[in-house]
Amino acid sequence: MGQTALYNVSNNSRLLKSWKKINSRATGSKRLVSGVDRVSVEDFNSISNKQLELIQQELRKRRYRFSNLSAFTIPKENGDYRIINIPIIQDRIVQSALLDFLSDKSIFKSQSNYGFLKGKTVKKALEKFLALRTNFPYVVKVDVEAFFDTIPRIELIKRVKSKIRYPSIRQLIFDIIECDSEFRSQADLKKAEAKGLKKGTGIRQGMPLSPFLANLYLDQLDLFVEKKGYSLVRYADDFVVLCSSHSEAEKAKLEVISCLSGLGLLVSDKKTAIFCPEDKVEFLGIDCSLTESNNYCLELSNNKIRRLISNLSSFQNINYCLKNNVRLFGLEKRLDSMILGYLQAYDVCQNYQSIKDKLYAEKNKTIRFVVENGIGVKMNSLDENQKKFLGVA
After folding, report:
1. Are 98 and 46 in contact (CB under 8 A)?
2. d(CA 36, CA 43)
3. What is the spatial distance between Cα 325 and Cα 98, in angstroms, rounded to a whole number?
4. CA-CA distances (angstroms) from residue 296 to 95, 246, 293, 299?
């Protein structure tokens, strides 16, 4: 008799792999963030071997229980606020192990889904969108209001039962779906309630398995749209339907809204629209528009570029550097790492070289500012070798 899915999920190597990924990704102040048990990555690191053994034992005895998420709000640039949910470390390890196991299985049949799947990326979704728009220039964008927080849990559980053919891990997934937020203050709770967050409804973002569960629920939309004969590109709850005419787009819009309504999801009328061939369309943070030669191209908007530059310039503040565990001689490495990540994400953009030039110019500006204003070294007093040594030549 073969090993059960639960046995595979709780394998020593899989749990250790999950923990190592969590540990390596927690840098700077993120190492001190904790869930409801007040145990941070830094704390867990000193007891990880023993804790991994306990996690395995609890899983195999089917006694493992997930905790609620520690929650708070942070302000957004537009004056709104974002809800942050933090699972405890053990739960992140177990969910990551589940995700690692499930990602190797052929659960999703749709070719339109590009979100959080092995071999599928934002870049590939954008490339597919660009290729399709040449032949299907009318674009339908439908926005689901508070998607993650409004997914009907009962319906999602039904999807898990029908799509996940591994009985030994289903209860773990059901328990994850039932996790709720525990807010650190009444003020944060009231803000969340004002945004429509309700206990017992939706799946909480911040959990490693949340994107997978979202995919599982919207798989029904993918199959519906494909069966209707429309072209679809979806990444999580951000998706576009491409059509050859305005009348076809009108029909597709109504059918997609009807499908989403049947799934218990509410569509935002303000953010739902049909775009004509000459219109600029933003998808996954990138603009798709016509060039003077009448071809479509992808570009990162100036507003988005300014936001990236702002992220780099944050390191001009020494207190911000210290908070993120960055010292002077590690500053260039951190900025280079950030820039590399941005460039890898946006190398599909036609204005890639311009983005690259602006980011590296900001990097040099930031290092110069820290050297001159942070530690009081005047640049005009340094020779070229000294400037090179400091990384500002």
Report:
1. no
2. 14
3. 31
4. 40, 18, 9, 10
Q: What are the extents of the domains in the chain?
A: 5-296, 300-390
Identify which of 164, 168, 180, 253 has the alpha carbon closest to the alpha carbon of residue 217. 164
Give tens-digit pLDDT for 111-149.
899 988 888 899 999 999 999 999 999 999 999 999 999
User: pTM value?
Assistant: 0.86
Scan for tokens 């591994």, then name that residue. Answer: 166
* pLDDT higher than 80, residue 178: yes
The residue to which tokens 């034992």 are assigned: 57
Q: Which two tokens stand for residue 55?
A: 């996690």
Helices (H), 46-133: 48-60, 89-102, 122-133
Residue whose pair of structure tokens reads 């660009």 in the numeric block: 130
The structure tokens listed for 249 are 């787009």
CATH value of 5-296 in 3.30.70.270, 3.40.50.300, 3.40.50.1000, 3.40.50.2000:
3.30.70.270
Sign, CA dihedral 49-53-58-60, equals positive
d(CA 224, CA 169): 28
Cα 267 from Cα 41, distance rounded (Å): 38
Tell me which residue of 205, 215, 236 sits closest to 69, measured CA to CA: 205
Q: Residue 59: which residues within 8 A CB-CB, separation 6 or more?
A: 6, 9, 10, 94, 172
**What's the pLDDT tens digit per position in 22-34?**
999 998 888 999 9
b/e 230-260 (16+ beta carbons within 10 angstroms → b): bbbbbbbbbbbbbbeeeebbeebbebbbebb
